[in-house]
Design brief:
14 helices, 0% strand, membrane, cell membrane, AI-2E family transporter
Length: 359
């Protein structure tokens, strides 16, 4: 047993470049795990810088200085975000408030239907179970409970001070990341050991994949959200803007997100139309959107950037989401791709390289 472990260690950790790569990954992982809250503005800025790097690079090729290109792209991006927020946020807020106000009526209707089913099929659900369920729902909908929950949300995630800091720091960081990209990359090399050829190989593979993933994910969110909103609005579904935004954001969680957002869409459609042709047409349209997203849009946008088996992707969402919350979910696929790249690049004298490719 000891000789086996010794041989295994020699095969995989005798290369100094491999040791350097391991320390770099462990160091970055520990920094993110223990300092994710403090590093949140930096992470947001890095994501936006990856997203905006392509137009800046194209403008630089046309002879425009990188400082001017970064300024133009950042101002245009912030202007677009401001227009979207001013145009979309009020409608989503109104529909959210309306949905909360309508929840008791929707729940009463649903409980009436459930009581009818209970009387007809008592072997599946009893009246006592329905009463217990109703008590729990009433507790959840208690006004004071909702107010306390709202205060908690506001206190932890949307304080005015935090928003002001983000509004100032993030655009500044994005500007300097875009403007001084080469200098920052060159300067960061002095913090790493000289034996970093393996780390450089992994970085070169991941750099383009991360850029493709972030760009593709943003485009996917916009397309799925806009198309869903248009379909919902044309069919007369209530809360179409709110549900369209939720459908767009659901693509952040591969496979699981689409399943989760199906429930509120189906419930709103059912309480609006009941089991009618309109309900069937809406769910069919929603199914077509999800099918086109998964079978057409995702392959077009990501191509080789998501060359992972679905089981690996779901496992990555669970693991990295558990470690880093929203950021872990958003970067689950790139992080899984990083693990795959490290396993493929890691020196191994005896056994073939491990891969996580989809078959």
């Amino acid at each position: 047993m000891l000789s086996f472990l010794t041989e295994w260690y020699k095969n995989r950790f005798s290369d100094p470049h491999a040791i350097t790569l391991m320390f770099i990954i462990v160091g970055i992982g520990l920094a993110l795990y223990f300092g994710a809250g403090l590093l949140a503005p930096l992470l947001i800025a890095l994501v936006l810088a990856f997203l905006l790097e392509w137009p800046v690079a194209q403008m630089s090729r046309l002879g425009i200085s990188r400082t001017a290109a970064a300024s133009i792209v950042l101002v245009a991006f912030l202007g677009l975000m401001l227009i979207l927020m001013l145009g979309l946020a009020p409608s989503i807020w109104r529909q959210g408030v309306s949905l909360v106000a309508d929840l008791p009526t929707m729940i009463d209707k649903g409980m009436s239907i459930a009581k009818g089913l209970s009387a007809e099929y008592p072997q599946f659900i009893s009246a006592a179970q329905l009463d217990s369920m109703m008590e729990e729902i009433n507790k959840m909908l208690d006004t004071q409970h909702l107010l306390d929950l709202g205060k908690q949300i506001l206190g932890y995630s949307a304080s005015l001070l935090v928003l002001m800091v983000y509004a100032i720091l993030v655009p500044l960081l994005v500007f300097f990341f875009l403007k001084d990209k080469d200098q920052l990359l060159k300067g960061s090399k002095r913090f790493f050991p000289d034996n970093r050829d393996l780390a450089r190989k992994v970085w070169l593979e991941m750099d383009q994949q991360i850029f493709n993933y972030i760009r593709g994910k943003v485009i996917e969110i916009v397309i799925v959200g806009v198309v869903s909103y248009i379909v919902f609005a044309l069919m007369g579904l209530r809360y179409s803007a709110l549900l369209g935004v939720l459908t767009g954001l659901s693509v952040l969680i591969p496979y699981v997100g689409a399943t989760l957002v199906t429930l509120p869409i189906a419930l709103v459609a059912f309480f609006q139309w009941g089991f009618s042709p309109e309900f069937g047409y809406l769910m069919l349209s929603y199914g077509v959107i999800q099918a086109l997203d998964g079978n057409v849009l995702v392959p077009l946008l990501f191509s080789d950037a998501v060359d992972l088996h679905p089981v690996v992707i779901i496992a990555a969402v669970l693991v990295f989401g558990g470690l880093w919350g929203v950021w872990g979910v958003f970067f689950a696929i790139p992080l899984a791709s990083l693990v795959k790249a490290v396993l493929n690049a890691w020196p191994n004298a005896e056994s073939p390289k491990m891969t996580l490719d989809s078959e």
